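It is worth pausing here to work through a concrete case rather than discussing structure prediction in the abstract. The textbook approach is simple: state the sequence, then state the predicted structure, then interpret. We follow exactly that order.
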Amino acid sequence: MYNYLVDTHCHLDLIEEKGISLNTILQNCKQNNVKILQNICTRFSKFEKILSYTIDNHDIYCSIGLHPCYVSDDEYKSADEIINLCKSHKKIIGIGETGLDYFHDLSQISLQKKSFISHIIASSQTKLPTIIHARNADKDMAEILSSEQKNQAFPALLHCFSSSRELCFKAL
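Step two, the predicted structure:
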C-alpha cells in the first residue's frame, strides 16, 4: 500500500512565474508527503518548458495540450501531431488541458471545438486521458463527448467542472 499524495493537476511553470522556485515547490511537496506531480500543459508553445520539469525529476510527469482560452493565440496541433509528441516522450501521461470555455470569450467557439476534438482523437489513439476543462459550455460539451465516444472510446478526466448535473451524468 502506498502512503503518499499525488497531485494530478499542477502548473509548475505558473507557480515559478509568481517567484517561487522549483526547489521550494519540491521541498513543500516533500514536507507534505506529495510524491508525484502531473504538470499540466496549457499551451503548445510552452510544452518544451513543461516537459523540461520531467527530465531531471523522477516524480514529475506532464501532459500536452492547448487550453480553450488560448486557442486564438497559440498554435493548433492536429491529433496526429499530438500523438507523435506523446510517442516521443514517456513521461507524458495525459492529453490537455483542453475543452470548452465560453465564460471568457465567445468569439473562438469553432476553434475551441476543433482543438478539443483533436485532443480527444489523440486520447483515443494513445489511451492517455483527456484532461477536460468545461466552463459555461454544457450543451456543446455534452454533444461533443457523446459524439466522440460513439466514434471511439477515450479515457477522460473532468478537471474544471462547474456545470450541471445533466452534464455530469452525460460525462459518466
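Step three, interpretation. The chain is about 45% helix and 25% strand. The first helix runs from residue 12 to 17.
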